Automatic annotation (TrEMBL), chain A:
<dbReference type="InterPro" id="IPR042255">
    <property type="entry name" value="EutC_N"/>
</dbReference>
<keyword id="KW-0456">Lyase</keyword>
<dbReference type="InterPro" id="IPR042251">
    <property type="entry name" value="EutC_C"/>
</dbReference>
<feature type="binding site">
    <location>
        <position position="164"/>
    </location>
    <ligand>
        <name>adenosylcob(III)alamin</name>
    </ligand>
</feature>
<dbReference type="GO" id="GO:0008851">
    <property type="term" value="F:ethanolamine ammonia-lyase activity"/>
</dbReference>
<comment type="similarity">
    <text>Belongs to the EutC family.</text>
</comment>
<dbReference type="Pfam" id="PF05985">
    <property type="entry name" value="EutC"/>
</dbReference>
<feature type="binding site">
    <location>
        <position position="143"/>
    </location>
    <ligand>
        <name>adenosylcob(III)alamin</name>
    </ligand>
</feature>
<keyword id="KW-0170">Cobalt</keyword>
Automatic annotation (TrEMBL), chain B:
<feature type="binding site">
    <location>
        <begin position="160"/>
        <end position="162"/>
    </location>
    <ligand>
        <name>substrate</name>
    </ligand>
</feature>
<feature type="binding site">
    <location>
        <position position="246"/>
    </location>
    <ligand>
        <name>adenosylcob(III)alamin</name>
    </ligand>
</feature>
<feature type="binding site">
    <location>
        <position position="288"/>
    </location>
    <ligand>
        <name>substrate</name>
    </ligand>
</feature>
<keyword id="KW-0170">Cobalt</keyword>
<protein>
    <recommendedName>
        <fullName>Ethanolamine ammonia-lyase large subunit</fullName>
        <ecNumber>4.3.1.7</ecNumber>
    </recommendedName>
</protein>
<dbReference type="Pfam" id="PF06751">
    <property type="entry name" value="EutB"/>
</dbReference>
<feature type="binding site">
    <location>
        <position position="363"/>
    </location>
    <ligand>
        <name>substrate</name>
    </ligand>
</feature>
<comment type="function">
    <text>Catalyzes the deamination of various vicinal amino-alcohols to oxo compounds. Allows this organism to utilize ethanolamine as the sole source of nitrogen and carbon in the presence of vitamin B12.</text>
</comment>
<comment type="similarity">
    <text>Belongs to the EutB family.</text>
</comment>
Amino acid sequence: MKPPVTRDPWAELRARTPARIALGRAGPALPTKAVLDFALDHARARDAVHAAVDWDALAGQLALPTVRVASAAPDRATYLRRPDLGRKLAEGERLRPAPQDFLLVIADGLSAAAVQAHAAPLIAALPADLRTGPVVLASQARVALGDEIGERMGARMVAVLIGERPGLSSPDSLGVYLTYEPRVGRTDAERNCISNIRPQGLGYEAAAARLTWLVREALKRRLTGVELKDQSDLGLIGPLAHRAVP
Amino acid sequence: MRLRQSLGATTWSFADLKDLMAKATPLRSGDALAGLAAGSAEEAVAARMLLADLPLKTFLDEQLIPYETDEVTRLICDSHDAGAFAPVASLTVGEFREWLLSDETDSAALAALAPGVTPEMAAAVSKVMRNQDLILAASKCRVTTAFRDTIGLPGCMAVRLQPNHPTDDLAGISASILDGLLYGAGDAVIGINPASDNLSNLGDLLRMLDDLIHRFAIPTQSCVLTHVTSTVELIEAGAPVDLVFQSVAGTQAANESFGVNLALLAEAREAALSLKRGAVGRNVMYFETGQGSALSANAHHGLDQQTAEARAYAVARAFDPLLVNTVVGFIGPEYLYDGKQIIRAGLEDHFCGKLLGAPLGCDVCYTNHAEADQDDMDSLLTLLATAGVTFIMGVPGADDVMLNYQSTSFHDALYVRRLLGLKRAPEFEAWLQGMGLTDAAGGLVPPRPGHPLLAAR
């Protein structure tokens, strides 16, 4: 006799969301297949955290000059335990001042896959005046590394494109963090964020439009962060208190 | 103050009370990151021994963060109830542990004590408590709150239904809500973390939740977890706001990094109260916290992360919240490295919050860059449920597809209800039964064909 598994008669709702709904149950517990599917996705996400970006390939996709820098975290294991090191440049890193209104930084963050797949197409979708070089490519980097980079280069504003924490269903989410007048010591409340950029989430064109609106507005109002609320119906922008910044 | 402990030939000395508190803390990566952790296992125990001998009232005489420079310290000092503190005023930290665990100390005694306990006292005693002590003492604490249903009654555990969607798609979110309701979850709150903080999007989410709750007369409350200033704007614009959400931390500077202060929270609470939307109670605030938030904002003042976290509960309790949620494993391995550290922190947070009189729930969770997995979450969930946790999260299949981390599922809640006989909030339990979704014992009943909730899809 087959053991009794209760099926859920709303399975067709699964088409509406990537969430794990209508899984059915064995008593109060998950059916065996759902348990093992979850274990496989977790195993893949764990493996994704430890992968590295192919920076040469990425630089090749950008039709812009690039500069490579590294954070003070020498390897992934240190990076994971020491976010302070990921927020500052490695000793001896030299960045020439290149004053500009808008500086692009691509940082690996917690998902090499996100950066590899989505950074170049997102930049390609930006208007010409925001496709500016040099683009800084930063390894073992956290969001706040953009503050030191922007300050040293004399940028009015920095946008850090960074791999977000890999999720079970989205190992390749790209985030953008925009900071006006970047300088060491900025808090996350002084940034605006666009999250979940990937074809299955927020598409390149939509993300580029939102970033463009934010940049224009930030230049006009001379700030980013909590006080720069988006009322333009573009969405996805706001303070970061409830989420984890890579 | 002389802070020295001799053990055999070695004398361990500690710079000040903060240093002693930090070194007495069971090992975790965040304190090591901050350079505050004990340098050896023996030093940690020496610190615990010294801490156990300190009079509890030391924490009234000496502030870990100065009164003059931190409004959270001012809140803690100014709201301290000396009368409530009297029964334990003569005890040391170690004796306080014994008092908490004594058979004579019952729920009434603990409830009466709460306004007399400061977060530093709670943190200090927790550092000399084992996991079983944290569980037993917390299980005796009762904190009851209410809005459209009653949360925290004896033998009950509530669930926040967390139906997040990566693009806030209304149909996707409502699919997850239906899944949760049909699994008997949602009595704590139906709470959405929005992907977008755009005000019109937030308004759409609030109206969708409000429609659903009223259409089916569900005795629960809604919340869209956005910044407190956005929620106030939404209230002013006439949006149907039940609960005001905000992340809070245990220092003024950390709260500033979240863009909030105590006055702003008070203003938001007044705005929500003015709507008079509660049916059985007036607790309108929902706070989230987590060890490491002060350090991650570089706003910890040399405090260990667990003590800073306990101070966040002093912030929370000042606003009579319906729910306070420690999102224990969310912040990442740089603060809580592995399953062992996450489990310990979850039990500490729950104990400290309850001792202070806050309705503590726990997001039993981990991220994919931490050394943890579902087995660790099963352990923490089971331990917290035995400790009387006020509520847990219910995320479809434990996988939050918007925030990219793993929490507890609707199934997990069913498991722990079955194992320990835990009930839902009584109003919600009655609603489920009335809807034909549970039997008299609270067990799930598959919905009949054409059930109104299924038809609602």
